[in-house]
Amino acid sequence: EWIELKNLSTTTVDLINWKISDLNTSTKYTIKNTDFATTTISALGFFILPKSITKISLNNSGGETARLFDSQNNLISEISYSETAKDDFVWARDEAGIWHWSTTQTTGAENIIIAPVTSGPGGGSSYEPKKYPSQIKINEIFPNPPGSDADEWIELKSFEGEMFSLIDWQIKNNLGTYIIKESDFKWPYLEANGFFLLARVITNLNLKNAGGDKIQLIDPTGKIVSEVKYSGEVIESLAYMMDKNKNWQWTTTPTPLAENIFTKNNLMPKAYFEVSGLIQPESEILLDASESYDPEGSNLIYEWHFNA
To answer: Which residues form the LTD domain (predicted)?
Structure first.
């Protein structure tokens, strides 16, 4: 659950020490700078107050009222509804200031009012299935950090123009699945064109260092939105990331929650050879080094040296 504020003025407002309450006025949450990256709301901008921070639980039946107070305890805004709140519906204000139930959530963006779709006479009513964003990508993974593997992480990046909730999205690999929960994150939202980090200490997903792995991002309907695969042995301290052309490369510069940077260390090739045939004087044997490889995928040049 969440409550969204909108600044209708043309100046930035600092919301520190402002308060939000529900019908139970004894439960008030005071906005603190320790709870948010910023407490300011820009001109004509938005500010999200999630239940995970406010601890305010909005009623699903019997009606509800939400009130906003400034730092001097003056009542600034108040809204109410009396109907039963249906799953996935939002109570949203239109441009004329009139409130409606809508099937479209628009956290951090202008409201889109899409009312329930009514069927023919005697058919009751229904609503369109909720649509989830599709331009969300797994952007970078860190499968083999230096030291403890507990420092592994998976980074998501949004290519959408608005913020949305990641609650109930799933991240899956060959060894397990994690469902994003509101209680696991202070801010379970992916900002427009922003990043979101899924650390192993939260997901408990163990990314494989040998034999390859496949990581999938799955929306709440079960649709696979993004997928990345890698194979072979993972060199310690390398990150696997997506470039601007949606191609994946290994890099020596991990960039959690930032734009990807591609650098290489020119690591030493891994030399490996086998000998086949009966080794006797003047006999012919085969020396095979074809399983040698370069950790960065470059082509190899083979040169043999024998001591007489």
So the answer is: 1-82, 133-231
